[in-house]
Write a structure and sequence with these properties.
- The chain has 253 residues and is an all-alpha fold.
- The chain has 11 helices and no strands.
- It is globular.
Length: 253
């Protein structure tokens, strides 16, 4: 299928760049350090937790803390990964060659999007290996952990959709990265404004728009279909916007 051909090409081109390898190494190093910090924190608290009925377990403290930190870290990383996807091709004029191929704009955009999702999926698997190692010496709430990683996957897919769209708006990758980071940060903290508003309807609306508010319940194992629908609609909207933007670019050229 043409979409998967473009996706595999995109994924291969990312791994041919030292940037992708550097990002994988740095993210793995930082998250591994955070994982060890969370383990040490849990070991310190364990004697007191044992005496408390219904106390949080290792899954919530160690895995939940790791995923919470990873979301913030990857919010900073994803704009760097997506900034070149379309902007660089527009600048080097290779996008025009791709558009001249017998491919629809939907196939081109979805192919590129699946390519970056493939890279983020590899990053997610590498991250999951750390908490899974705890199964060797103890028990984990696998349901809670699966919910957390599923939520992080949806969050990364949302980050990538925004990054892909912003990359289609400019020929400068740096501008695409900065604008992507700005939008993601705004959507991350937008509920802060909602908590300070007088009108409850306004506050609820801003809270609903927050990427963070739909991610937090999944970290606690509270799987809600409305959170999944939010992320799917969010991703769909930005992918469609990217297709429309490139359709306009094709008509201009």
């Amino acid at each position: 299928m043409k979409i998967f051909t473009i996706a595999s090409r995109e994924l291969r081109s990312m791994f041919l760049s030292p940037l992708a390898w550097s990002i994988l190494a740095v993210v793995q190093l930082i998250t591994a350090y955070m994982f060890l910090v969370q383990l040490d924190f849990y070991a310190t608290l364990q004697p007191r937790l044992a005496a408390v009925s219904g106390a949080p377990g290792i899954t919530l403290i160690v895995v939940g803390g790791l995923l919470d930190f990873s979301a913030v870290l990857l919010l900073l990383v994803v704009p760097i990964l997506t900034m070149r996807m379309i902007a660089d091709e527009r600048r080097s004029q290779t996008l025009s060659l791709l558009m001249s191929a017998p491919l629809s704009m939907t196939e081109i955009v979805l192919g590129k999007y699946l390519g970056i999702l493939g890279f983020l999926g590899i990053m997610l698997v590498m991250l999951a290996l750390m908490p899974l190692s705890l199964l060797v010496g103890g028990n984990l709430d696998t349901g809670m952990m699966a919910s957390g990683f599923f939520g992080l996957g949806l969050l990364l897919a949302a980050f990538a959709a925004v990054g892909l769209f912003m990359s289609s708006l400019t020929v400068q990758p740096v501008i695409a990265a900065i604008s992507t980071l700005g939008i993601l940060l705004l959507l991350w903290i937008i509920d802060w404004a909602g908590s300070g508003t007088q009108g409850q309807a306004t506050g609820n609306t801003l809270s609903y728009l927050s990427l963070l508010q739909h991610y937090k319940p999944m970290l606690r194992g509270a799987f809600n279909s409305s959170d999944v629908i939010y992320y799917l609609l969010f991703i769909f909207s930005f992918v469609v916007l990217t297709i429309r933007r490139l359709d306009a670019y094709r008509l201009q050229h």
